[in-house]
Each structure stands twice: as structure tokens, then as C-alpha cells.
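DM between two lab members

TW: hey, do you still have the GcrA cell cycle regulator entry open?
JB: yeah, one sec
JB: this one, 84 aa:
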Amino acid sequence: MGAPRPNPDLPLFLAPGQAVPVPETGRGAAPVEPYQDDPRCELVGCDAPLPPSPGNEETIRYCCREHRREARAQRSRARHGGER
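TW: and the structure you got?
JB:
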């Protein structure tokens, strides 16, 4: 059998978005921030994760068609002084 787990109180796997638990060390260890590198929708006010798209990660910017349409409308209004 393999080596024993270094800390059996910590989970083996984390759920998506779950913060990494910080063991009590008594040495003033700083808490670890959750992983924030997952791509998110670029529409202001939306924090939804982007759908997976293997090989197309750099072109997907919005979580759904409606948000893409709204972002395009906002850019158009900004270019034309709010007239469109």
C-alpha cells in the first residue's frame, strides 16, 4: 500500500470554487486564496464561468448568446453616443 496521507483531516479533492483549507500550524500561516484563474464572462456585472471549449479558449468571452449580444449593443452605443 502507499504512504499514509500527510494530513488525514484535509480532503483529498476540492469541489469547484471551494477554498483550499489552511491547516492550523501555529506558525502564523497566511490563508490561501481560492484559485481565481478560471475564465469568466466579460460582461460587466456577470461572474459566470465560461463554458468549456477545447482549442477555442481565447475567442470565447461571454457565457451565453444574450450576454454577447448585450456587450455588442453596449459597444455600439458607446461608439455612436448612445443613439443606437
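TW: got it. The longest helix spans residues 65-79. The mean pLDDT is 76.
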